[in-house]
Amino acid sequence: MTEDDCLYDYELVADEDMRGIKRRAMRAVERVHSSTGMYHLTDENRARLTPLRDGLTVSQVATEHGADEIAAALHAEMPWMAPATEVVWRGLQASARDGPPGARFSPLALVGSPGIGKSHWARRLAHHLSVPTTKIDATGEPATFALVGSQRGWGSAHHGKVMKTILQARHGGPLVILDEIEKAGETHSTRGSRHTFTDALLPLLERMTATSWECPFFQIKFDMSWVNWVMTANGREGLPEPLQSRCVVLDLPDLTIEQLHDFACSEGKRRGVPEPALAAVLDVFDSGAISNARLNLRIVSRMLDRAEMLAQQPMLN
Protein backbone atom coordinates (compact mmCIF):
# COMPACT_ATOMS: atom_id res chain seq x y z
CA MET A 1 0.00 0.00 0.00
CA THR A 2 1.36 3.34 -0.98
CA GLU A 3 0.97 6.57 0.94
CA ASP A 4 -1.57 7.74 -1.61
CA ASP A 5 -3.77 4.75 -0.75
CA CYS A 6 -3.91 5.65 2.98
CA LEU A 7 -7.17 7.11 4.36
CA TYR A 8 -7.09 9.41 7.37
CA ASP A 9 -9.81 9.60 10.03
CA TYR A 10 -11.03 13.04 8.98
CA GLU A 11 -11.50 11.73 5.44
CA LEU A 12 -13.80 8.96 6.68
CA VAL A 13 -16.26 11.48 8.25
CA ALA A 14 -18.31 13.37 5.72
CA ASP A 15 -19.52 16.94 6.22
CA GLU A 16 -23.06 15.71 6.86
CA ASP A 17 -21.72 13.38 9.56
CA MET A 18 -19.89 16.30 11.22
CA ARG A 19 -23.08 18.38 11.26
CA GLY A 20 -24.93 15.50 12.88
CA ILE A 21 -22.22 15.07 15.53
CA LYS A 22 -22.38 18.80 16.35
CA ARG A 23 -26.17 18.68 16.68
CA ARG A 24 -26.04 15.71 19.04
CA ALA A 25 -23.24 17.33 21.07
CA MET A 26 -25.23 20.56 21.44
CA ARG A 27 -28.31 18.63 22.59
CA ALA A 28 -26.20 16.78 25.15
CA VAL A 29 -24.79 20.07 26.50
CA GLU A 30 -28.30 21.56 26.67
CA ARG A 31 -29.57 18.55 28.64
CA VAL A 32 -26.71 18.89 31.14
CA HIS A 33 -27.36 22.61 31.60
CA SER A 34 -31.12 22.09 31.84
CA SER A 35 -30.67 19.55 34.62
CA THR A 36 -28.98 22.24 36.75
CA GLY A 37 -31.70 24.81 36.04
CA MET A 38 -29.05 27.45 35.32
CA TYR A 39 -28.73 27.21 31.53
CA HIS A 40 -30.36 30.61 31.02
CA LEU A 41 -28.00 32.43 33.44
CA THR A 42 -24.92 34.41 32.59
CA ASP A 43 -21.56 33.06 33.72
CA GLU A 44 -21.46 35.70 36.47
CA ASN A 45 -24.83 34.75 37.94
CA ARG A 46 -24.11 31.04 37.56
CA ALA A 47 -20.95 31.57 39.62
CA ARG A 48 -22.99 33.34 42.32
CA LEU A 49 -25.31 30.37 42.70
CA THR A 50 -22.75 27.60 42.45
CA PRO A 51 -22.03 27.62 46.23
CA LEU A 52 -25.73 26.83 46.82
CA ARG A 53 -25.55 23.62 44.81
CA ASP A 54 -24.93 21.40 47.83
CA GLY A 55 -27.37 23.25 50.09
CA LEU A 56 -26.91 25.79 52.88
CA THR A 57 -26.71 25.62 56.63
CA VAL A 58 -29.63 26.68 58.84
CA SER A 59 -29.57 27.34 62.57
CA GLN A 60 -31.19 24.68 64.72
CA VAL A 61 -32.50 24.62 68.27
CA ALA A 62 -31.59 21.09 69.27
CA THR A 63 -33.61 20.77 72.50
CA GLU A 64 -36.58 22.36 74.20
CA HIS A 65 -34.17 23.49 76.91
CA GLY A 66 -32.28 25.42 74.25
CA ALA A 67 -35.54 27.14 73.26
CA ASP A 68 -36.15 27.98 76.92
CA GLU A 69 -32.70 29.57 77.24
CA ILE A 70 -33.20 31.75 74.15
CA ALA A 71 -36.62 32.91 75.32
CA ALA A 72 -35.34 33.60 78.84
CA ALA A 73 -32.40 35.68 77.56
CA LEU A 74 -34.66 37.67 75.25
CA HIS A 75 -37.23 38.24 78.00
CA ALA A 76 -34.56 39.40 80.42
CA GLU A 77 -33.47 42.10 77.96
CA MET A 78 -36.95 43.29 76.93
CA PRO A 79 -39.67 41.96 79.27
CA TRP A 80 -42.36 44.25 77.82
CA MET A 81 -42.07 42.27 74.57
CA ALA A 82 -43.24 39.13 76.38
CA PRO A 83 -46.14 38.39 73.95
CA ALA A 84 -43.75 38.31 70.98
CA THR A 85 -41.13 36.34 72.90
CA GLU A 86 -43.74 33.75 73.85
CA VAL A 87 -44.77 33.18 70.21
CA VAL A 88 -41.15 32.63 69.24
CA TRP A 89 -40.58 30.41 72.29
CA ARG A 90 -43.51 28.13 71.33
CA GLY A 91 -42.26 27.92 67.76
CA LEU A 92 -38.73 27.03 68.82
CA GLN A 93 -40.03 24.40 71.21
CA ALA A 94 -42.03 22.82 68.40
CA SER A 95 -38.96 22.88 66.16
CA ALA A 96 -36.93 21.12 68.83
CA ARG A 97 -39.64 18.46 69.31
CA ASP A 98 -40.31 17.81 65.63
CA GLY A 99 -36.63 17.78 64.72
CA PRO A 100 -36.59 19.72 61.41
CA PRO A 101 -33.23 20.89 60.04
CA GLY A 102 -33.76 24.47 61.17
CA ALA A 103 -35.59 26.67 63.68
CA ARG A 104 -38.96 28.09 62.69
CA PHE A 105 -41.68 30.21 64.22
CA SER A 106 -44.87 31.80 62.91
CA PRO A 107 -44.49 35.10 61.02
CA LEU A 108 -44.98 37.98 63.45
CA ALA A 109 -46.60 41.39 62.96
CA LEU A 110 -45.73 43.65 65.90
CA VAL A 111 -48.10 46.60 66.20
CA GLY A 112 -47.26 49.47 68.53
CA SER A 113 -46.10 53.06 68.88
CA PRO A 114 -42.76 54.11 67.37
CA GLY A 115 -39.78 53.65 69.65
CA ILE A 116 -41.01 50.77 71.84
CA GLY A 117 -38.29 48.48 70.51
CA LYS A 118 -40.01 46.32 67.89
CA SER A 119 -37.06 46.28 65.47
CA HIS A 120 -34.51 46.17 68.29
CA TRP A 121 -36.25 43.10 69.73
CA ALA A 122 -36.08 41.41 66.30
CA ARG A 123 -32.35 42.12 66.00
CA ARG A 124 -31.73 40.72 69.47
CA LEU A 125 -33.74 37.64 68.52
CA ALA A 126 -31.51 37.14 65.47
CA HIS A 127 -28.48 37.49 67.74
CA HIS A 128 -29.69 34.79 70.12
CA LEU A 129 -30.61 32.49 67.22
CA SER A 130 -27.20 33.11 65.60
CA VAL A 131 -28.76 33.87 62.23
CA PRO A 132 -28.05 36.68 59.74
CA THR A 133 -30.63 39.43 59.48
CA THR A 134 -31.72 42.04 56.98
CA LYS A 135 -34.10 44.95 57.36
CA ILE A 136 -36.39 46.27 54.62
CA ASP A 137 -38.29 49.53 54.89
CA ALA A 138 -41.73 48.78 53.45
CA THR A 139 -42.47 52.45 52.71
CA GLY A 140 -41.93 53.79 49.23
CA GLU A 141 -42.25 52.26 45.79
CA PRO A 142 -38.93 50.34 45.65
CA ALA A 143 -39.95 48.19 48.64
CA THR A 144 -41.35 45.37 46.49
CA PHE A 145 -38.14 45.11 44.49
CA ALA A 146 -36.04 45.41 47.65
CA LEU A 147 -37.86 42.37 48.99
CA VAL A 148 -37.86 39.95 46.04
CA GLY A 149 -35.87 41.70 43.31
CA SER A 150 -36.91 42.42 39.74
CA GLN A 151 -36.83 40.28 36.63
CA ARG A 152 -34.85 40.89 33.49
CA GLY A 153 -36.48 43.47 31.28
CA TRP A 154 -36.69 46.10 34.00
CA GLY A 155 -34.36 49.06 33.82
CA SER A 156 -32.42 47.95 36.92
CA ALA A 157 -32.91 44.21 37.25
CA HIS A 158 -31.46 42.77 40.46
CA HIS A 159 -32.09 40.13 43.10
CA GLY A 160 -33.79 41.15 46.35
CA LYS A 161 -32.29 41.75 49.78
CA VAL A 162 -33.49 38.39 51.10
CA MET A 163 -31.60 36.51 48.37
CA LYS A 164 -28.64 38.85 48.79
CA THR A 165 -28.46 38.03 52.51
CA ILE A 166 -28.68 34.30 51.83
CA LEU A 167 -25.91 34.46 49.22
CA GLN A 168 -23.60 36.66 51.27
CA ALA A 169 -24.04 34.83 54.59
CA ARG A 170 -24.28 31.34 53.00
CA HIS A 171 -27.18 30.73 55.37
CA GLY A 172 -30.61 29.42 54.38
CA GLY A 173 -32.60 30.75 57.33
CA PRO A 174 -32.06 34.47 57.92
CA LEU A 175 -34.39 36.67 59.95
CA VAL A 176 -36.06 39.34 57.81
CA ILE A 177 -37.38 42.51 59.48
CA LEU A 178 -40.04 44.39 57.48
CA ASP A 179 -40.46 47.86 58.93
CA GLU A 180 -43.69 49.90 58.79
CA ILE A 181 -45.51 47.22 56.84
CA GLU A 182 -48.81 49.12 57.01
CA LYS A 183 -47.36 51.86 54.78
CA ALA A 184 -46.28 49.56 51.95
CA GLY A 185 -47.20 50.94 48.54
CA GLU A 186 -47.38 49.74 44.96
CA THR A 187 -44.79 49.59 42.19
CA HIS A 188 -45.59 50.10 38.52
CA SER A 189 -43.43 49.06 35.59
CA THR A 190 -42.87 51.17 32.51
CA ARG A 191 -45.32 48.86 30.75
CA GLY A 192 -48.02 49.64 33.30
CA SER A 193 -47.99 46.37 35.26
CA ARG A 194 -48.82 46.70 38.97
CA HIS A 195 -46.79 45.08 41.77
CA THR A 196 -47.80 45.30 45.44
CA PHE A 197 -45.62 44.58 48.42
CA THR A 198 -48.26 42.26 49.89
CA ASP A 199 -48.55 40.20 46.69
CA ALA A 200 -44.79 39.72 46.66
CA LEU A 201 -44.65 38.82 50.36
CA LEU A 202 -47.53 36.35 50.71
CA PRO A 203 -45.90 33.44 48.79
CA LEU A 204 -42.88 33.72 51.08
CA LEU A 205 -44.99 33.61 54.26
CA GLU A 206 -46.87 30.47 53.20
CA ARG A 207 -44.62 27.53 53.99
CA MET A 208 -45.91 25.37 51.13
CA THR A 209 -45.32 28.03 48.46
CA ALA A 210 -42.08 29.22 50.07
CA THR A 211 -40.62 25.73 49.62
CA SER A 212 -40.50 26.23 45.84
CA TRP A 213 -40.42 30.02 45.50
CA GLU A 214 -39.13 31.29 42.16
CA CYS A 215 -36.78 34.25 42.27
CA PRO A 216 -37.86 36.85 39.68
CA PHE A 217 -34.26 37.76 38.88
CA PHE A 218 -32.56 34.36 38.72
CA GLN A 219 -35.77 32.64 37.53
CA ILE A 220 -34.86 29.58 39.58
CA LYS A 221 -36.82 27.99 42.41
CA PHE A 222 -35.41 28.19 45.93
CA ASP A 223 -36.51 26.76 49.28
CA MET A 224 -37.26 29.86 51.33
CA SER A 225 -39.30 28.04 53.97
CA TRP A 226 -36.53 28.40 56.57
CA VAL A 227 -36.62 32.20 56.47
CA ASN A 228 -38.26 33.74 59.57
CA TRP A 229 -40.23 36.99 59.40
CA VAL A 230 -40.85 39.83 61.84
CA MET A 231 -42.97 42.74 60.62
CA THR A 232 -43.51 46.02 62.45
CA ALA A 233 -46.38 48.50 62.20
CA ASN A 234 -47.45 51.61 64.07
CA GLY A 235 -51.13 50.62 63.83
CA ARG A 236 -53.46 48.01 62.35
CA GLU A 237 -54.96 50.48 59.91
CA GLY A 238 -53.48 49.76 56.52
CA LEU A 239 -52.54 46.15 57.30
CA PRO A 240 -54.07 44.03 54.50
CA GLU A 241 -56.37 41.25 55.68
CA PRO A 242 -54.52 38.52 53.69
CA LEU A 243 -51.35 39.53 55.50
CA GLN A 244 -52.98 39.50 58.93
CA SER A 245 -54.43 36.04 58.29
CA ARG A 246 -50.95 34.62 57.71
CA CYS A 247 -49.27 36.21 60.72
CA VAL A 248 -49.58 36.36 64.47
CA VAL A 249 -50.57 40.00 64.97
CA LEU A 250 -49.69 41.40 68.41
CA ASP A 251 -50.75 44.78 69.80
CA LEU A 252 -48.00 46.04 72.10
CA PRO A 253 -48.45 48.76 74.76
CA ASP A 254 -46.35 51.88 75.23
CA LEU A 255 -43.44 51.71 77.64
CA THR A 256 -43.54 52.99 81.19
CA ILE A 257 -40.79 55.08 82.78
CA GLU A 258 -39.85 52.07 84.90
CA GLN A 259 -39.42 49.87 81.83
CA LEU A 260 -37.29 52.51 80.12
CA HIS A 261 -35.17 52.76 83.29
CA ASP A 262 -34.65 49.00 83.33
CA PHE A 263 -33.77 49.02 79.63
CA ALA A 264 -31.22 51.80 80.13
CA CYS A 265 -29.63 49.79 82.95
CA SER A 266 -29.46 46.46 81.11
CA GLU A 267 -28.48 47.95 77.73
CA GLY A 268 -25.81 50.14 79.35
CA LYS A 269 -24.27 47.10 81.03
CA ARG A 270 -24.44 45.10 77.81
CA ARG A 271 -22.61 47.88 75.96
CA GLY A 272 -20.03 48.17 78.70
CA VAL A 273 -20.83 51.80 79.52
CA PRO A 274 -18.58 52.86 82.43
CA GLU A 275 -20.34 52.75 85.78
CA PRO A 276 -20.18 56.54 86.49
CA ALA A 277 -21.59 57.36 83.03
CA LEU A 278 -24.38 54.81 83.39
CA ALA A 279 -25.19 56.09 86.86
CA ALA A 280 -25.56 59.60 85.43
CA VAL A 281 -28.08 58.34 82.87
CA LEU A 282 -30.07 56.42 85.47
CA ASP A 283 -30.06 59.42 87.77
CA VAL A 284 -32.14 61.28 85.17
CA PHE A 285 -34.85 58.66 85.66
CA ASP A 286 -34.48 58.38 89.44
CA SER A 287 -34.68 62.14 89.99
CA GLY A 288 -38.12 62.29 88.39
CA ALA A 289 -37.02 65.04 86.00
CA ILE A 290 -38.50 63.26 83.00
CA SER A 291 -41.59 61.67 84.50
CA ASN A 292 -43.88 63.53 82.11
CA ALA A 293 -41.67 63.37 79.01
CA ARG A 294 -42.64 61.19 76.05
CA LEU A 295 -39.56 58.99 76.05
CA ASN A 296 -38.98 55.91 73.98
CA LEU A 297 -36.19 53.43 73.35
CA ARG A 298 -34.64 55.57 70.63
CA ILE A 299 -34.21 58.51 72.99
CA VAL A 300 -32.81 56.28 75.73
CA SER A 301 -30.37 54.73 73.23
CA ARG A 302 -29.19 58.21 72.25
CA MET A 303 -28.71 59.03 75.92
CA LEU A 304 -26.49 55.96 76.26
CA ASP A 305 -24.62 56.92 73.07
CA ARG A 306 -23.95 60.33 74.58
CA ALA A 307 -22.82 58.81 77.86
CA GLU A 308 -20.40 56.49 76.03
CA MET A 309 -18.97 59.36 74.03
CA LEU A 310 -18.44 61.55 77.08
CA ALA A 311 -16.89 58.68 79.02
CA GLN A 312 -14.28 58.21 76.29
CA GLN A 313 -13.17 61.83 76.30
CA PRO A 314 -9.95 62.63 78.19
CA MET A 315 -10.26 64.12 81.67
CA LEU A 316 -9.59 67.85 81.85
CA ASN A 317 -7.30 69.18 84.58
What features would you highlight for this structure?
11 strands; Rossmann fold; alpha/beta; 317 residues; single chain; 14 helices; five-stranded parallel beta sheet
Write the topology of this structure.
Elements: H1 9-12, H2 15-36, H3 43-49, H4 64-77, H5 82-98, E1 108-111, H6 118-129, E2 133-137, H7 143-148, E3 149-150, E4 158-159, H8 161-169, E5 175-179, E6 186-188, E7 194-196, H9 197-205, H10 207-210, E8 213-214, E9 221-222, E10 228-233, H11 241-245, E11 248-251, H12 257-271, H13 275-286, H14 297-312
Parallel strand pairs: 1-10, 1-11, 2-5, 5-10
Antiparallel strand pairs: 3-4, 6-7, 8-9
Helix pairs in contact: 4-5, 12-13, 12-14, 13-14
